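Comment thread on ticket #2218

A.B. wrote:
> Attaching the input chain for the structure job we discussed in standup.
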Amino acid sequence: MNTQTNSPNYTLWQCVLYFLRLGALGFGGPVALVGYMHRDLVERRGWISDSDYKEGLALAQMAPGPLAAQLAIYLGYVHYRILGATLVGIAFVVPSFLMVVALGWAYVAFGGLQWMQAVFYGVGASVIGIIAISAYKLTNKSIGKDKLLWAIYLTLGAVTVITESEIAWLFIAAGLLVWFWRAPPEWLKKGGVAAALSGQLPPAAGLASSFDPGLLTQIGLFFAKAGAFVFGSGLAIVPFLYGGVVTEYHWLNDKQFVDAVAVAMITPGPVVITVGFIGYLVAGLPGACVAALGTFLPCYLFTVIPAPYFKKYGKLPAIVAFVDGITAAAVGAITGSVIVIAQRSITDIPTALLAIGTTALLWKFKKLQEPVIVVAAATIGLALYPLMHH
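C.D. wrote:
> Ran it. Output below, let me know if you need it in another format.
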């Protein structure tokens, strides 16, 4: 893998410390974190070349799993290979993981405490506005005017709202559809193979669901599946998690789940770290560790293993088309999840106003940081919750 020919102008430890800091202080979700990396590492410090950054971003968007974490791992890989990727990945995730575990402990210990419920009452509603604006930006950027992508986007949005979960094989199907439509491979013209492939999918899915292991194994397998099949930003994992954690396994109820998403929003670092909080609520510290490991391990492997090949083949029309299809599906699911989560977080007039107000503020003031809104919403929640629930 040929990166900059000269040796890097920074040490591995400088790189690890940078990502430790970003993981501890980087608010605003995946899109913001990816922006900070470009600003700091490409523009200001010149550690990473623009072309390396763009390749990392393309690979992160194409592979399933959390976008910001994958880009961080790839940037660690650029000059320091496997060791760099591993240390950067750990440094980026650990600060927010420790925070959500502490919050998980407090939530379990003082779950009945009014202030905690009050904070989430405000934050839960404002999170809707944050996700809505994210979904709008992603839609604008990814879908454009392409009719096929719009069809995929609208279908996945509708499916997410109706089933209240994310159906992983639909993402792959969307990728294949755009690939076969825009850059059909030779064998497809002869026919037969696609039919053979489609016949293999449902039995394999049935086999996986009939397996019933112990709780920690169950948590590990479920979160590994989430890490392996969820594309797009960290928010894309939300409907998928809801389908498993609430609907299928009944580990958490609706309110606890919305609180878990709120925890992800009020802590810095990758949004996906909410899995640590969920894992803690289900099975304490071991549950938190297993959930985080299950989610981040696939994303680490999906970044490190293809990195050398991606430089060679990433520009092929078939791969570009496949990525476009998957992205359209992911953004559709995120947009659908806004409606699903809104039905749970918006319970009265103040929460409805908070959600609308957040959306309006982010729409009007493009530079407004999400943490500012989250703190304001928490304050409003503290003031209003006792009045609404006395």
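A.B. wrote:
> Thanks. Noting for the ticket: The CA atoms of residues 286 and 360 lie 41 Å apart.
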